[in-house]
Amino acid sequence: MSSWVARTEGNALAREGTNAAAAHERLWAAALTVLVGLLFFYDLGAAALWDQDESKYTGVAQAMLRTGDWLTLHWNGEPWFVHPPLYMWLVAATGALVGFSEFVARFWSAFFAAAGVGLTAVLGRAMFSPRTGLLAGFVLATTLQWFAQARIAVFDSMLAFWILGVVYAFWLGYRGRRAAYLWAFVCAALGTMTKGPVAAVLPGLGLLVFLWRRGQLDRLREIPWGSGLTLYAVLGLGWYAASYALHGEPFARTVFGYYTVNRYVGVVEGQSGPLWYYVPVLLLGALPWAAFFPAAWAHHVRHRSDAASDLVVTWCVFVVVFFSLAGTKLPNYVLSVYPIAAIAIGRTWEVAITDDRPQALRSGWALLGVVFVLLIVGVAAYGLVLYPQEFRRVAPALVPTVGALLVGGATSAVLGLRGSQRAAIPVLGASVVAFLLLLIVRVAPEIERQRFHREVARAAAAAARAGEVRISLWTWNSLIYYGNMEWRYAWDVYEFRRLLCRVHPRQTAVVVMPLWAWEESIRPLAGRALVVERVVADHVILRKPYGRSARCGFEQAM
Fold first, then answer.
1. CB 504, CB 79: distance < 8 Å
2. 163 burial class (0-12, 13-18, 19+ CB within 10 angstroms)?
3. Within 13 Å and on the Cβ side, how many CA atoms surround 553?
4. 223: enclosing H helix or E strand
5. Which of 188, 279, 326, 366 is the most buried (most CB within 10 A)?
6. C-alpha torsion sign, points 281, 283, 289, 295
7. What secondary structure letter does DSSP report for 219?
């Protein structure tokens, strides 16, 4: 009887402990959800869309509603064979329901970034433990580049989510849930509809390397290739097939040839870089958690006999090497590294705390100062070299924002080096959250005060009259989006000359360009061909009047 009572009491205590742990986990999961909501969605629509991709992708979505064509993407009145349509479909559908706005344009990017944090926490739990999952989710949510990508209207967060979905589904299948393999094909297909075949090629090759390293290539037979590839073909390639049937060889040459194959083996739009291009990208993009990369690397390399640690190491190395070998390089290409790197760091933290091994994180606390120095140098160099005047205006808000991070980081480093990991990690985490929130509420509004794209675009649209030729020089895609009209645009003086000189004397034309371009490059040569109509902020709106030729000394002088 006494042994039965003891067992009963022991089981009750175990259940009580399990319930307490579950309640604690739910509390931290709720806190993480609130944090993600603040960081990714607060004041999301306050700033005007950025000049290049944000305005273009939102304009493509807007054109779907204007033309009624959801199959062929259009930009500036022309078919646009660059990216597949899934992201633009979501933005267009949302815009049709509630109207277009900056918040609507960015919503799905923030949504998938938030979903990526949740999926990272779930994957970290499946690979290691609930605590690792929650720590990994926090690290990812507060990683600088992940945070920044979440708040702009581009589809890299969405692509990273689908790629992470492939990894998660593969892991479940690898651990025995065979049906989960099919979800890997679904995620690869939706990723392909987001940004092309890289969504299938990258995780496919990375996970193949993982199996090869473990001598388990025979496990490929477990994967239901027939049904999986059928799902991938239907969900991921249907739009490509329909577009090829409609547009033929020009579509295939542009989408698959130039923007897929040539993007990797060649250089697209001058976006090249050296082999070490992603080293500074990851050091700054993973701020401040990059300081813990060496500690996490050491931990998981030591435990590579465990499949989870082996997958972490293999994935991070493969993704960086894959894109380092590509001819075209952009910082956002390596976004899919961050979720797995966050899991690696979260697991390292958990082991150091639970096993009371402060020395495991000593290198991280020591390197934190180096990372902060890189941040200061990088921000100062970028701002002072490229945008000196604007940077000086933003500096009063930026300096205390970075200072808050530095003070918190220094405090946490001192605590960490003294062995107080349980205090150091929360202090660093709180300082990073404060830093990111200050970027939103203090720095972003100051940056917005230096930008006039929305005002210039709307003024230009108001100045343009029916039947006029519209030409822009060194202006942006926001001119097309915010004005909701088509423009002929040039990116150098010679192309501008060609466009303007083709305007018939019996046609009028409205012209938009930066004020400095007018004063320094165009006005001395244009003679009486152009008349200033209005100056808006740092841009000038001009007109070529009816009956006046743009060739009156202008073409020859240039």
1. no
2. buried
3. 9
4. none
5. 188
6. positive
7. G
- pLDDT, one tens digit per residue, over 91-124 is 999 999 999 999 999 999 999 999 999 999 999 9
CB-CB contact of 71 with 242 (8 Å): yes
Determine contact, residues 262/226, Cβ cutoff 8 Å.
no
Residue 154: half-sphere exposure toward Cβ, Cα within 13 Å: 16
Per-residue pLDDT tens digits for 295-323 = 999 999 999 999 999 999 999 999 999 99
Q: Are 541 and 483 in contact (CB under 8 A)?
A: no
What kind and span of H or E run contains 489?
strand 488-490
Q: Which burial class, exposed, middle or buried, applies to 241 when counting CB atoms under 10 A from its CB (0-12, 13-18, 19+)?
A: exposed
* Cα–Cα distance measured from residue 505 to residue 512, given in angstroms and rounded to the nearest whole number: 19
Count of alpha carbons within 13 Å of 83, Cβ hemisphere only? Answer: 22
Do 85 and 73 form a contact (C-beta atoms < 8 A)? yes
Question: Which tokens go with 254?
Answer: 């542009």
CB distance 402 to 431 below 8 Å: no
Provide the edge-to-edge strand list for the sheet that holds 488-490: 488-490, 469-473, 509-514, 539-544, 531-536
Specify the amino acid at residue 381.
Answer: A
Specify whether the CB–CB gap between 315 and 198 falls below 8 A. Answer: no
Q: Which of 71, 76, 121 is nearest to 92 (CA)?
A: 71
**Amino acid, single-letter form, for residue 252:** A
Phi (first) and psi of residue 36, to 5 degrees = -60, -40
CA distance 372 to 410: 10
3-state secondary structure 453-471: HHHHHHHHHHHCCCCCEEE
Cα(414)–Cα(435) distance, rounded to whole angstroms?
19
